[in-house]
Structures are given as C-alpha cells and as structure tokens.
Amino acid sequence: MSTPWEQLISSTMTPTTAVAVKLAVTDEPPEPTDPNDTVLPGGSAGGSGSSGGIFGTLHRHIPILSRLSLNKTDKAPCRYRQPRFSSRRQYRRVVFKHGECNVVQGKVAKRRRKYLQDIFTTLVDAQWRWTLLVFSMNFMLSWLGFAIVWWLIALNHGDLDVSVRNNNSTWEPCVREMYSFTSCFLFSVETQHTIGYGSKHTTEECPEAIFIMCLQSIVGVMIQAFMVGVVFAKLSRPKKRTQTLLFSRNAVICQRDGILCLMFRVGDMRKSHIIEAHVRAQLIKKKMTIEGELLPFHQQELKVGGDGEEDRIFFIWPTTIVHKITPQSPLYMLSAADFLQEKFEIVVVLEGVIESTGMTTQARSSYLPNEILWGHRFETLVSFKKETGEHEVDYSLFNNTYVVDTPLCSAHDLKKLISLRAHTEMHLMQPLDHSTNYSDPSDSTSGSKAFKHRGEYHDKQLSTSDLMMAQLEPFLIKPGELPGPESFL
C-alpha cells in the first residue's frame, strides 16, 4: 500500500518541497536498503532519521540520496526553501522568468529569402557579433569593390605604366599619385569617407573617373546611414528598458475583503516612470472542447488590476496586482490541494510608454503552480521618511511574503461556506414562534413549560452553531501550515 506522499510524487510534476503539509503519512514505510541489501541509517533500527515521511519517500524514489546518506548520522533538516527558478526540463514554460519566450520557429519555407527582404529588422534582432560583422564587412567590401574599379580605370588609361608616364611630358593621369593597387585602395577609402589627404585626386582627363567618384560618394553615405541606423536601433530598443522592470519571484493567494485573490507584484527601478502602464495576465492550460478537440495551449484572459478591476495603474512605486477569484475566473474551482496536481502557466505582461524616449515597452514573466504560495501575503515596502520628507522604497523586501490565515478550500466552496454561515445566523436570529404560550408567571405549571421550551430552543442554537464551526474547521489554517520559503514540513 503506497503512502499519499508516494502517490503524489509519482502522479504529479510538482516538487515535493511544494506539497501541502495537510497530507499526513499514517502508515509506517519499509526500511530503505541499498543495492547490497544493507539497512541504511535512519530506519527503524537506526533511529528516526529520514526513513519516515517525505525523506523516506525521497530515499526510496531517488537511489543516489540513499548512497549519499550512508555516512551521515545527523538529523535531516526540517526546513526547506523553494527553488528560485524552475528547470527548463522539468517544466514546459512558455515564457521564462526573465521574459524570453520559449518558442522556436521550425520548418519555415524560404526563411532566408524572407529574412533578407527585411534586412533591417533582421540585423536589429540579430546578436551583436553578427551585427558588427555585417557592419565591418559592408565597409570593407565597398572599399575593395571600388578599389578594383579604380584600378581598372587606371590600367585602361595607362596610369600604371611607368614608361608611358616618363616618356610623355604632356601625359595626364586619371588620378594623380596612383601607381599600384594599394594606391587604388587608399584612394577608394579617402573618396568614400571624404578624407582628402591632398596628394591623390581626380583630373579632367577621364570622365568615367569623375562618374565613379560621385557614385562612390553616394554609396558611402547610404551605407554609413544604414549601418548607423541599425546600431542606434539596437542601442535604443525598448526591450532593454524591461531589464529594470521587476516581477515578484512568486505569486500569492490570500483573502482580500473576504474574497480569495491571486496577487503578484511589479516594480520599476528607474526614476523615469512608465506612462499609461497597464497589466495583463493570461492562463495557458490544456483544454478539451465539447467536440473533442484538444487545445494544448489554450489561452484564457484573467481580469487583473491594482484593485482587481481596472488594468491601468499609476506606476510610481511597486504595485501589487490583484486578480479576484470570482465565478468568472478559471481558478474558481481550484483548492490548495488542486494546485498541486494542476498543470498551467500564468503569463503576466506589463506594457507602457517610456517617459524619456516615448517608445512603447513590454515586460513579461510567468508563474507555475509551484511558484504560487497559498496563504501568503506581500510585505509592505513603501515607507515615509520624516527626515527627508520622501517616500522610500525598500527593494530588499520586494519578494518577501508572510503567512496569513487562509481557507484551503476553493473560492467556490468558500462561497458556499459563507452562505451556509449567513443562513445559519439568520436562522438563529429568528424570533420565537408566535404559537409559543407564555402564561402568567404566577401559574407554576405554565411557567415551567415556557422555561423548558426556551431552554430547548437555546440548546438547539448551540448545537447548530457547533455544527457550523465543525464544518468550517477543516478549511481553516494557521500560519506555518502551508508550504513557503520559510515554512516547516
């Protein structure tokens, strides 16, 4: 008979460090043994080490842990810390934590031709090493190409023949001081960039030389303008602005005004603000339609905002974004235990206009189920300093959370429990039935009957209240009962 821990580990991709502690192991697991049939330390014969509970299960499922623990006699730690970033192999992320999309386009017909048709965007999106290579090769090839043209002109006119130049005193070259291909290359560089050292220059002898000089000047300006535009576009891309836009490492679920809410935090490190900032969130999950069609990456919009209603925020300091788990939310039927088995990804997007450049930027991040802390709340990080008269933001508390009392049930079940409690309270507050006979107090018989009837009614009130609290008790938790960065197993 397998334990609940073993069933959970074998049936879900969620790490064991994110399993709710409400799952208790009641049966005693067998003693772990190594491949040589040797009882490992921590078994029933060796004390209460790592044989029971989650550590015993890990030893049985991961043999390397058993071998590594042969020489360890100290107690297993009872605290854990969730991993900061998830492994790419373990989770099929659509968007990584730093905002890059985990999408690769494959088998695209005529990709190279289409990329060359939009060469400017291709160079802007390319890595810096390829952009600098194209930048250098454009100038080198243009210098070399026009150097060959100048060499052909000089060769055709006889400028490179020393005997013709020495025997004819009236002879006029196309380009003065040009004696070899090296001279032609230097003249090409001087012409394209209008350097003009003074020794080499064209004459009126060759019209074709004058035409080539004008053509090279035009081509040189066009190449320089194109490459400078590419470099400037890469340096001023709004994508770099997203490096200073922060998303909290984890999202949390807790109650706000009596409603279960999914919350995450966004922040901006720069003093120049994001204008018209608004936030979006989408839940990506596998879905089966009524017709039987499987949608592996179905996207469903989540209504988010600073107050859970309006997506536009006044983004002057770190803001907590709220999604109210209402009947319209896809998280409405999920409880804390369901989060351990569900496989989905919540992609969050922050968009706005950069105040200093006027360009639109977009920052992205995502949260997996094991990165959502149930029963946690973000710490306050904005405080007012009387000494300076300024509001100070402490970014060391940006990812900090603390545990709060939160029901473990889903928002749907919580609404039913609240309705049940309201109905019970209304029933308890109803007046006594009018048919109750209150006789004269002097009549001892009638008085005793009325007192007995009121006593029975009071006992009924107490029993109903106790029943309601007994129904609510399994759904209430206390700090430390949920997994988190500082929780106990």
UniProtKB/TrEMBL annotation:
GO terms for biological process: potassium ion import across plasma membrane; regulation of monoatomic ion transmembrane transport. Residues 96-238 form the Potassium channel inwardly rectifying transmembrane domain. The keyword Flavoprotein does not apply. One of its GO terms (cellular component) is monoatomic ion channel complex. InterPro entries: Ig_E-set, IRK_C, K_chnl_inward-rec_Kir, K_chnl_inward-rec_Kir_cyto, Kir_TM. Keywords: Ion channel, Ion transport, Membrane, Potassium, Potassium transport, Transmembrane, Transmembrane helix, Transport, Voltage-gated channel. It catalyses: K(+)(in) = K(+)(out). GO terms for molecular function: inward rectifier potassium channel activity. Pfam families: IRK, IRK_C. Residues 433-448 have a biased composition (Polar residues). It is found in: Membrane. It comes from the Eukaryota. It is a multi-pass membrane protein. The chain crosses the membrane at residues 130-153, 209-233. Residues 245-416 form the Inward rectifier potassium channel C-terminal domain. The keyword Transport applies. Belongs to the inward rectifier-type potassium channel (TC 1.A.2.1) family. This is G protein-activated inward rectifier potassium channel 3 isoform X2.
